[in-house]
Write a sequence for this structure.
């Protein structure tokens, strides 16, 4: 198998995620309103989600050497009768970026490029969450566009677009990227090329008493009662930082928190590969550690889900074993 040209692949991934993230940013600011919030109307996120997947896939086809894409979405729902309004809105956003000549079929086919299911024979592929943190998107809060590259069951590169996290220059939106052995960087979301690029590094604290921890806003995605018990056992006094999406990994990688707890709320839930691939590589390359609640590495070699893992614990590194020991006291790690 040929070697990956990491420079070229990261460049392709950054271009892909940036296009998608800028569209999501504009959809969120134009379509998420008091009225959609009040009605619990999910249509803005549906439009942005499909447009994002179409844009990332079309960009990877053009600029990446790797065309297998395991995305969260496929276009089946958009091809149904009754979906015309959403479909037209998705296509309009794709045309705004890729050109007025793009047909509806072309836009839907791009979404379906991301419909690959990995099996043992697929050695290398991208995995995409076109909008991670859909609930955050609809609340006008945090969400992310997450693209990871998997090879041999391990994440080897990734890009995380966080349109509502401040960039290194203070402007809204940042884009983090990392490749195995090459470190992790952040740049302003709207910057071109390598403008404003900075290396990032996790916090260097060695005592959990000085730590801040991140967790989901949604109590159904991570057990917040257990995390409070764990935080107390670790002498953590700061309130938890609750944010949606892989923005949690972005916050950890930039040293603004030291722990991310994702504690299973159900024994049978399996984490999805696209919910963790990009975040994991960014944190690890910024110097941190990522495992499941048992302390095992996340194994991306079992299809669309992390079949052999339970929950996720990410830290700045030095405090990881202490955090795992506290987790084992309160969580049934089986
Ligand atoms: P977050 O924004 O961190 O709360 O995570 C959002 C992600 O949680 C979504 O992309 C879903 O794939 C995932 N998810 C859905 N149900 C669960 C669950 N029961 N436990 C953990 N994660 C879940
Ligand atoms: Mg997700």
């Amino acid at each position: 198998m040929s070697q990956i040209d990491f420079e070229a692949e990261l460049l392709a991934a950054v271009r892909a995620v940036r296009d998608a993230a800028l569209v999501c940013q504009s959809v969120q600011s134009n379509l998420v309103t008091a009225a959609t919030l009040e009605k619990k109307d999910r249509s803005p996120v549906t439009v942005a989600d499909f447009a994002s997947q179409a844009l990332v896939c079309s960009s990877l086809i053009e600029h990446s050497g790797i065309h297998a894409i395991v995305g969260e979405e496929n276009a089946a729902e958009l091809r149904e009768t009754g979906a015309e309004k959403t479909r037209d809105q998705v296509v309009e956003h794709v045309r705004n970026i890729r050109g007025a000549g793009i047909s509806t079929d072309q836009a839907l086919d791009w979404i379906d490029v991301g419909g690959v299911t990995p099996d043992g024979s697929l050695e290398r592929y991208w995995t995409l969450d076109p909008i991670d943190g859909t609930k955050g998107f609809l609340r006008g809060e945090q969400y992310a566009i997450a693209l990871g590259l998997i090879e041999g069951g391990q994440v080897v590169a990734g890009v995380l677009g966080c349109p509502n996290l401040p960039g290194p220059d203070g402007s809204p939106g940042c884009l983090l990227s990392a490749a195995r052995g090459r470190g992790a960087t952040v740049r302003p979301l709207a910057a071109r090329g390598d403008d404003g690029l900075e290396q990032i590094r996790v916090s260097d604290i060695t005592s959990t008493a000085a730590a801040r921890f991140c967790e989901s806003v949604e109590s159904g995605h991570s057990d917040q009662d257990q995390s409070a018990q764990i935080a107390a056992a670790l002498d953590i006094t700061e309130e938890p930082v609750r944010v949606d999406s892989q923005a949690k990994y972005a916050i950890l990688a930039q040293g603004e928190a030291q722990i991310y707890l994702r504690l299973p709320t159900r024994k049978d839930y399996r984490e999805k590969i696209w919910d963790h691939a990009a975040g994991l590589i960014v944190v690890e390359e910024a110097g941190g550690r990522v495992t499941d609640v048992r302390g095992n590495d996340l194994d991306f070699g079992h299809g669309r889900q992390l079949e052999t893992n339970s929950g996720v614990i990410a830290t700045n590194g030095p405090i990881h074993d202490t955090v795992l020991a506290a987790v084992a006291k309160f969580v049934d790690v089986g």
Q: What stands out?
A: The chain is about 35% helix and 20% strand.
